[in-house]
Amino acid sequence: MHATIPEFESGTRTPWAEGLGDNKGRVFFTPEGVDIQEKNHPALGRMRAQKADVDSVITRLVQGRTDDAGWITFPDRGLNVYHGPTNTPAVITAARADVEGVNTTWAGRRDASQGWIEFSQPGATVHKDGGQDLGTLTADKADVNGLNTKWVGDRDGGKGWIEFPQDGVDVRKAADDNWGTIAAGLASVNDLRTGDARVKGLLTVLGGMNLSHRGKMNRERGTLFSTGRTPLNSPGRTSSSRACDSRTACWSSTASTPSR
């Protein structure tokens, strides 16, 4: 039967409907619904519409209308986002992502010129300005088992800072290389080398003290003899070790009080 525009008030029953001429696309009615087939049946064809309102979509991939547009595949472990005609990973843009974990080689801001974090085998590296230069990590508190650094300073660049050279630790002041001051309640060291030492209170020497300049040490008696131009004596005090003349001051490691 041939008709230009047939009308059926009660409907039509048919296993499939096909176009005319070269438009051999076919609509095939299955027990589950409808299959759209291209002219080379039974290969699946394409359905076009301005809008589709469905409860769910089961598909192998979703893609934009152009060949260079992004596309999404749905493997067994989740989904992959690509762009272009190859399997090049693409960008997901969202206001917020709520996930249990993120596996990535790096993380950064949307502006490529900002700081970014790289996740390498030994840990995480913070970079700045979109390049490979090391950046700054700012936090209220850091709880770590160890810290490897070239220097440590205050957030204000004009404060003192500590440098870690090969032979130990250097304390500097301000923003230059001048020596700074260490303040502590107690210092326990095996060796002390200094250019100038000043003691505000009493100096107690246990076991004696050796001077390599302007003095000598009596190790057996634990007594220091200072014969420099400026006597190290203190008026009004006596020492149990010995008496000295006006040019010599003596300290005993047990009495620790100078005499004239």
Description:
Residues 224-260 have a biased composition (Polar residues). The chain is mainly beta and 260 residues long. Among the domains are: 15-48, no CATH class; 58-92, no CATH class; 151-183, no CATH class; 203-260, no CATH class. 0% of the residues lie in helices and 23% in strands. The chain has no helices and 16 strands. The strands form 5 sheets. A 4-stranded antiparallel β-sheet has the order 4-5-6-7, with no helix packed on it. Strand 6 (80-83) and strand 7 (88-89) form a beta hairpin. It is rod-shaped, with a radius of gyration of 43 Å. Residues 215-260 have low confidence and may be disordered.
* End-to-end C-alpha gap: 139 Å
Q: What spatial form do the alpha-carbon principal axes imply? A: rod-shaped
Which radius of gyration do the C-alpha atoms yield? 43 Å
Number of helical segments with 4 or more residues: 0
State the low-pLDDT regions, or none: 215-260
Series of H and E elements: EEEEEEEEEEEEEEEE
**Could you describe the largest sheet, including whether it forms a barrel?**
4 strands, antiparallel
Strand content: 15-25%
Helix/strand class: mainly beta
What's the quaternary structure here?
single chain
Percent helix: under 10%
The total of beta strands comes to 16
Overall pLDDT? 78
Which strand order do you get reading across the main beta sheet? 4-5-6-7
